[in-house]
Amino acid sequence: MKPTLVVLAAGMGSRYGSLKQMDGVGPSGEAIIDYSIYDAIRAGFGKVVFVIRHAFEKEFREIFSAERFGGKVKVEFVFQELDYLPEGFKVPEGRVKPWGTNHAVMMAKDVVNEPFAVINSDDFYGREGYEVLADYLRSVDGQKGKYSMVGYNLKNTLSEFGSVSRGECSVNAKGNLVSIVERTAIERLKEDVTCACGKTLKAGTVAYKDTEGFHPIDENTPVSMNLFGFTPDFFEESEILFKKFLSDPAVMANPKAEFFIPLCANQLINSGKVELKVLNSAAKWFGVTYKEDRPDTVAKIQALVDAGVYPANLWK
After folding, report:
1. Sign of CA dihedral 270, 240, 2, 140
2. Residue 308: which H helix or E strand, with range?
C-alpha cells in the first residue's frame, strides 16, 4: 500500500499577498510544493491530491500537472469553496472567509481510500517528516482511528517577520496526543509587552495573543504544522463534527469561525474513538508566511542543494 498526500493549497495567501503556492523559490524555479512532493515520492507516497479553488484552477493545473513530476506519482485535483456545505446548511450572509483546514481535507473524500497525510502548501517540512509519517501510515493500513502527526519544536517554526498560527500540543507518556489548541498569533516579541496576567513579558519571549492579550509559551513546546496522518474513516468522522460545528448559532454568527484540523482531532481524541500518535522531528520549519520570509527560504533551499540533499533541478 502506498499512502496518499493531500496538499492544502486553496488559501490565497492573504498575508503573503499572492498565490504563494506557485512562487518559485528553488534554483530552477521550484515551489515549496515541489520539494514536498519530491520528499513524499522518496518516502513512498503514491498519489498527490491538491485541494485548490476554481478561481485559480487553470494556472495551478498548468504548473502542477502529473507530467511535471515525470509520472512518478498520480495527481488529483479537488476544490474547496465557501458554499460546499452539507445538505441543509447555507453560507451565512456576509461570510467570505473559507471554513478552515479540516473543511479543506473533507473535499478529498471521493478520491482517497487509503491512509493519507495532510500538509500545508507553503510549509517546508523536511525529508524526515515524510519518511516517519509514511512508515506509520503503512503500518495502520486497513485499521480505523489510527491517526498521527509530526511534531516540531515551536522555536523551530517561527517567522522573523510576524506572528504565525500553530497547534500547541500536549503529549502523554505513550507518545499520544492528549490535546491540541490552535494558537493563531504566536511570535517572538520584539519589544517588552504587558502580559494578560499584568506582568511584563521581555523582548525575546515567545508568546501568543488572544482576545485577552499576550500569554507566554515555552519555545520548546511541541507544535503541529498541519503535517497529519489519517486513516480514511477520518472523512466520515469529520462530516459528523462539521455538521455539529455548523449547527452552533455562535459559529454561524461569527464570520471568522473556522473548522480547523486541531478542533476536529481534539474532539475525536476526547471521545475516545481514536488515538493520535505524535511522531517527533527535530527539523527546522521554514516557509513563506510573509513576503519577507522569501529571501531566507530561497537561501535555505540553496544551502540544501549545495549540500547535496536535493538536486539543482528536481524534475530534470
Report:
1. positive
2. none
Query: Which residue is listed with cell 540544501?
Result: 304
| Per-residue pLDDT tens digits for 182-195 | 898 999 999 999 99
Cα(64)–Cα(56) distance, integer angstroms: 12
Bridge partner residues of 188 (DSSP): 206
Domain-wise residue ranges, the chain: 4-155+222-306
- 81, 83, 106, 112: which is closest to 10 by C-alpha? 81
Helix (H, G, I), strand (E, B) or coil at 225: strand
CATH assignment, 4-155+222-306: 3.90.550.10
pLDDT tens for each residue of 21-69: 567 899 999 999 999 999 999 999 999 999 999 988 888 888 888 899 9
Closest by alpha carbon to 138, among 46, 57, 248, 223?
46
- Dihedral Cα 247, 248, 249, 250, nearest 10 deg: -150
Q: Please provide the DSSP assignment of 169-217 as one string.
A: EEE-TTSBEEEEEEEEEEEE-SS-EEBTTSPEEPTT-EEEEETTEEEE-
Does the pTM surpass 0.70? The reply is yes
Distance CA 124, CA 294 (A): 12
CA–CA distance, 292 with 85 (Å, rounded to integer): 35
